[in-house]
Amino acid sequence: MSPSVDHHSNYASPGATTSTQSVSKLDENPFRRTWRGNKQGTVQLKAVPTFTNPYEEREWVKEHLAAAFRYWGKLGYGEGISGHITVRDPVLPDHYWMNPFGEHFSSMKKSMLVLVGPDGYVSPHGAQLPINMAGFHIHSAIHKARPDVTAAAHCHSLHGKAWSAFGRPIDIMTQDSCLFYDNLGVYQNFGGIVLAQEEGENIATALGPKHKACILQNHGLLTLGKTVDEAAYLFSALERQCKVQLLVEAASANGLSKTIISPDDAEFTAKTIQYWENTYFNFQPEYKLLLEETKGAFML
Question: For 229-240, what is the mean pLDDT?
Answer without folding.
Answer: 97
